[in-house]
Design brief:
The protein has 139 residues and is an alpha+beta fold. It contains 4 helices and 6 strands; from the N terminus they run βααββββααβ. Strands 1, 2, 3, 4, 5 and 6 form a 6-stranded antiparallel β-sheet that branches. It is globular and about 40 Å long.
């Protein structure tokens, strides 16, 4: 999968996406985005896609994603996309995710998966099939 290099604009916004092939290798292409976001003191959010059966809470559940009632996308292949964090909810500290990625040996997918399991959102055996990271400058 070829795409342009990860870029964070002067305003702090940036996005990186990876699909199945990159996820299989740990989504290493997203690591520089998260590291740069942490260096700049940015916030981040992410969207994951996995089989519906991998989630522990039903679609749109406030337990799964408090304050975010949008961005649950049903797919015809029985998978579902869900977003975690937003500018409205404050998102996540990029520095915290850098530490998580480093603890996972640089594997961004494993770090996000571990967070989702720790917070009781997905089953431990669930497989992430798409991952998107978004960054922005806090207000």
């Amino acid at each position: 999968m070829r795409t342009k290099a990860v870029l964070i604009t002067p305003t702090g916004s940036g996005t990186g996406r990876v699909g199945a092939q990159a996820i299989a290798s740990g989504s290493a292409r997203l690591r520089p985005l998260i590291a740069e976001a942490a260096r700049r003191g940015l916030r981040l959010a992410f969207t994951v896609r996995l089989a519906k059966t991998g989630y522990l809470h039903p679609s749109g559940s406030r337990t799964d994603s408090p304050g975010i009632r949008r961005d649950v996308i049903q797919r015809t292949d029985h998978s579902e996309e869900r977003s975690y964090g937003s500018a409205q909810t404050g998102g996540f500290d990029a520095a915290d995710f850098v530490r998580r990625v480093d603890a996972a040996g640089g594997d961004v997918t494993a770090a996000v998966h571990q967070w989702l399991v720790e917070t009781g959102r997905i089953r431990p055996d669930a497989q992430i099939i798409h991952l998107e990271i978004r960054t922005w400058r806090p207000r």
